[in-house]
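2024-03-11 09:14:02 DEBUG pipeline.ingest accepted 1 chain
2024-03-11 09:14:02 DEBUG pipeline.ingest length=343
2024-03-11 09:14:03 DEBUG pipeline.predict start
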Amino acid sequence: MINFNEHPHRRYNFLTDEWVLVSPHRNLRPWQGKMETGAQAQRPGYDPACYLCPGNKRAHDQINPRYSGPFVFTNDFSALLPDTPASAVDEGLIRYKGCRGTCRVICYTPQHDKTLAMLPAEEILQVIEVWCRQWSELSAEYAWVQIFENKGEMMGCSNPHPHGQIWAGDFIPNELFAETASQMKYYRTHGAPLLLDYLQQELRLGVRVILENADWVAVTPFWAVWPYESLVLPKRPVTRLDLLSGEEKSSLADLLKNLLAKYDNLFETSFPYTMGWHGAPAGEENSCCWQMHAHFYPPLLRSASIKKFMVGYEMLAEPQRDLTAEYAAERLRTLSSVHYLDR
């Protein structure tokens, strides 16, 4: 039988109907490419020049309130607008449609020098509660709600103040469309949610499980593209964030606290990533095929200064990764859940 840790192979991503090339290199070649800045500058708890800190001025002379918990506002430079005309043009190979929506920013905490990983579980729970309320509010008007965070300059974040974003639109974007189609196809054939069956298989095997508690599991998915990618799933059928119970929200806060601490501990750096929640589109909250989940896509490959570049073959052919999902999960699983700055 092929040893997946030693030989190139392809893995199927049933969630998006794509293949991933895995080329595991136990002895990676000496790195001669770009090195990111590994040093972390100490930030103050409050920065008078930060447009996300409490009481500071944003664009268009907007003033932030002196908030003490999570704070949400409409993005001053939204990519989606609620008053876009409903226009459409179809000229064969040239087609477009107007899209309506909104973009919001959520500041996790007034503390400029923190990250989500450094907050206590009870403050992470406050962020989760806001995610749930925003999901419920926006899905009443829009077809799709995307909650996400770009953390770190390496992932395009222009402001280090701990924050995420919430976009909502009157259309179903490509990734969500693909996930809906795959989950619906599987449910029609097997009569069970695809991701719940997948989760049970991962729990039986155990090799890609990073963390587990009473209500949640974090795994490195079999088809992972990013080096230390993870998928966070509830154990019971839940289609959307706003349908979680109080206990599930609390245990999610605990799991995120531990997972993000492991990420930071891996290279003892503030670990960059893009993360986001996927759930059933509006009007499909009772759909039996959908299982809500979060994706974490971290770019760091071998150290705090070496990232995985998605270029060349990845952009022109298909995703390719340099270490197996099992190896990545084992490394994360064996790390402490106590943040290295708290030891």
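2024-03-11 09:14:41 DEBUG pipeline.report The chain has six helices and 16 strands.
2024-03-11 09:14:41 DEBUG pipeline.predict end
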